[in-house]
Each structure stands twice: as C-alpha cells, then as structure tokens.
Amino acid sequence: MTDDLRELYQEVILDHGKRPRNLREIPGATRTAEGYNPLCGDRATVYVTLDGDVVKDVSFVGKGCSISTASASMMTEAVKGRTRAEAEALFERFHALVTGEPAAPDAPELGKLAVFSGVSEFPVRVKCASLAWHTLKAALKGEDAPVTTETGGE
Ligand code: ZN
C-alpha cells in the first residue's frame, strides 16, 4: 500500500469513528443483538429490520474505540439493502481481510471496507474491527445470548 492510500484509509476510519453513520436505535427492529469485546471494552448493540430476507434497515448503538465505532458504522452502510446470505458472505470476506487470510474465490467485493486491511497487522485490533460484524451475525441468526469476542472465536 502506498503512503497516500494509507493516509486516505486512515481518514475514512477517523471520519466514521468521529461521525458514525446509523448510530441510533430502531424502535420495533425485527432483530437485535448485543456484542462485547472485553479486551478493549467495546460494546455494540445492533438493530436489524428484515423485510423477508432483505436487511431493510440496520443501525447500532454502543461505546468503543474508534476502530470498533468506525467498523460498526461502515458495517451498517455495507449491509443495508443486502440479503442475509449476502451480509454473511460479506462478513466472511471482511473477517478474512482483518485476520490477514486469503479471501474465498467467490468472495464479494469489499469496497470501502478494504480500509480495514491494516488491522491485520495489529492482532488486538482484529476484535475491535470484527465486533459489530459478529453482533450482526448473531442478530441475523436470531441468537439471544450476548456475543463476546472471547467465546465466539475471532
Ligand atoms: Zn476496541
């Protein structure tokens, strides 16, 4: 990655960390789930409104470091309007990115989410970046138990 690109990426993360998108509750959401990353203290509650199999609306509330907030913010933008299967495929792709693993051959394009590629160099930050996604996955599955990054794997 060039220095210019790295700077641009940092700006995107800073921007979303400072001014998170879709930071709100959804009254009457179809699904909600709570996530907690004890390593950093990040907390996120994800709200999803499903229309059939499509994520019609998605939002989050929570407190955490700028990486976790930026990731939650960008997650909501990335999965809105997608089907559940597409959202889960995107999560798999994103997870591969932040853990530095190769993507599956049929993986979806990450678009702006690629800004998190630098996270793979900082293992502690992987959980910050993936918390909102784990929580989304739990919400889509309809799991009631709170998610923690310590029992749910990476
Ligand atoms: Zn964090």
Give a written overview of the molecule.
- This protein has 154 residues and is of the alpha+beta class.
- It has a single domain, classed as Sufe protein. Chain: A (Alpha-Beta Complex).
- Helix content is 42%, strand content 19%.
- The chain is built from four helices and four strands; from the N terminus they run H-E-E-E-H-H-H-E.
- It has helices at 3-18, 66-79, 84-99, 123-141, and strands spanning 31-37, 42-51, 54-63, 147-148.
- A hairpin with a 2-residue loop joins strand 2 (42-51) and strand 3 (54-63).
- It is globular and about 45 Å long.
- The mean pLDDT is 91.
- Bound molecules: zinc ion (ZN).
- Zinc ion binds at residues 37, 40, 42, 64-65, 67-68, 128.
Tell me the distance between the termini: 25 Å
User: If you consult CATH, what is the topology?
Assistant: Sufe protein. Chain: A
Largest sheet: 4 strands, mixed
Overall shape: it is: globular
Count of runs of 4 or more consecutive helical residues: 4
